[in-house]
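User: What would this chain look like folded?
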Amino acid sequence: MSQLSDVINDFYKMLQTYPDDQKYALRFYSFFKAMRFVNDEYIPFLEMGSILKYKKPTIFYELKRSFNRNFIIEVVTTATMDYDDAQKRIDTILLQRKK
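Assistant: Here's the prediction, encoded as structure tokens.
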């Protein structure tokens, strides 16, 4: 995963692809774990965590329960924000990337 916009788009694809079932939590865990390798950019962990909590609550709570010893997962699952605010911030990041 190299470009932040690609990471965000991959996240949205995952939301569309996987049903809200705890058996897919490992796929999201792997995704978030790999995100730390994006080139020294602001990574919207809080925003994606908030969107995940709203769109896939079963997966969100399974991540929180099963993978809470990982710092990134802890950030994703504990410091959430309002869904609409998270969506606006993600949209802003994507718009800035298009410039």
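The helical segments are 4-17, 25-35, 45-55, 57-66, 71-78, 83-98. If you want, I can go into more detail on any region.
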